[in-house]
Design goal:
The chain is mainly β and about 150 residues long. About 15% of the residues lie in helices and about 55% in strands.
């Protein structure tokens, strides 16, 4: 579990480095988004990005004008991803696809069960849907994303 947390923290830092290294400013862009219902409440993030590090795909909903997440936010990790579309079952086991719902920098809820489905992949974006129940029984439903791929 500690290795997974370390991997996610390193991914977060690498993603931040990618954003900070970009010459173009990051602004709200309705083309790339993540939305869902969290216990019935609307969740919308105006920017969504995906990064692939050592065959682990990480998809995150970000705030509207910052390279760093705006809380709350959702991060989805799919280890050993090789570009395939289709469903990926979510759980909380080390090395398995999972979803984390962060409501503060060091406070998150991890998926107990659910599914993320990658619908399409191009050279610039990934689209998909998701739902899950977290270990504390938070219900995340009607999830959808269109993520910009950063390489």
């Amino acid at each position: 579990m500690n290795k997974l947390i370390t991997l996610l923290l390193l991914l977060g830092l690498s993603v931040s480095a990618v954003f900070l290294g970009c010459k173009r400013s990051i602004t709200s862009n309705s083309t790339y988004y993540m939305k869902a219902k969290i216990d019935g409440q609307e969740y919308n993030n105006a920017n969504c990005m995906a990064v692939l590090v050592d065959h682990t795909l990480v998809i995150e909903g970000l705030g509207s004008s910052s390279p760093f997440p705006t809380y709350p936010y959702i991060a989805i990790a799919i280890p050993t991803w090789f570009g395939a579309t289709g469903p990926y079952p979510l759980d909380s086991l080390l090395g398995h696809p999972n979803l984390r719902y962060f409501d503060a920098p060091n406070n998150y809820r991890i998926s107990e069960y659910g599914t993320v489905t990658i619908n399409s992949v191009s050279s610039e974006l990934i689209t998909g849907t998701f739902f899950c129940t977290t270990k504390d029984t938070t219900e995340i439903t009607s999830g959808a994303f269109t993520a910009k791929i950063f390489k």
